[in-house]
Amino acid sequence: MENSTSEKLSLAPPKFNTKQRIHWGLASFGGALISGTYGSLLSIFYVDYLGLVGPYAYLVVIMSIAYAVWNALNDPLFGFYSDRSKSKKGRRIPFMRYTAPFLGLFFILVWFAPISPDKIAVFWWMLVTTFLYDTGYTIVFLIYSALPPELTEDEQERNKLSIFASFFSLIGMILGFLIPDFFRKEQGIFPLQMA
């Protein structure tokens, strides 16, 4: 018994090589890319392409307020739940593993709204898919951000993981905000202008 305790105490925290840090950062890149794309393209898509304008513009405002409330509630809710998870497969990884495919699906579904003269149906599609997308995003990336202290006790290693995640996140966010500009009606990437 005494030997096993001293062996545990003598184990050094794991060190991550550059390849592992890049892989860690790529997850952050993906999250920032879809988040940036979602944030900058959602209004363009539902207003310019699906016609939630004029007398229906209030629906976009209602969705934005409902989304903000849900987003404020779901982070602590899922954080609380994952902190208390007793899964045999670990506290965090099962959440990411089983939610990530749905996050991808819900992100795609946001953009497959019905092209319908019934703008209320379009609004409900936007509201439901946005809530599902945000729930998936929250679970995956809340867990992702909570993992470094569980991966290593070495503060320098956690800092290195954080640097790689921040670097790749910045690239993903920039691309996430630039790519949607290609989809703007009568604008494109070069005549960027403030309206």
Q: What are the main properties of this structure?
A:
mainly alpha, 7 helices, 73% helix
Structure explained in plain terms:
InterPro entries: MFS_2, MFS_trans_sf. There is one protein chain. The chain has helices at about 1-10, 20-50, 55-85, 95-110, 120-145, 150, 155-180. It is about 75% helix and about 0% strand. The protein is elongated. It has 7 helices and no strands. The chain has one domain (about 25-185). Helix 2 (about 20-50) packs antiparallel against helix 5 (about 120-145), helix 3 (about 55-85) runs parallel beside helix 5 and helix 4 (about 95-110) packs antiparallel against helix 5. It has about 200 residues and is mainly alpha-helical.
Distance between the termini: 71 Å
Radius of gyration: 21 Å
Helix coverage percent of residues?
Answer: over 70%
Regions with little confidence, pLDDT below 50 for 5+ residues: 188-195
Briefly note the structural class of the backbone.
mainly alpha
Number of helices: 7
Number of domains: 1
**H and E string:** HHHHHHH
Principal-axes shape call? elongated
The percentage of residues in β strands lies in under 5%
- Report the count of strand segments: 0
Average pLDDT reading: 86
**Main sheet, how many strands, which sense, barrel?**
none
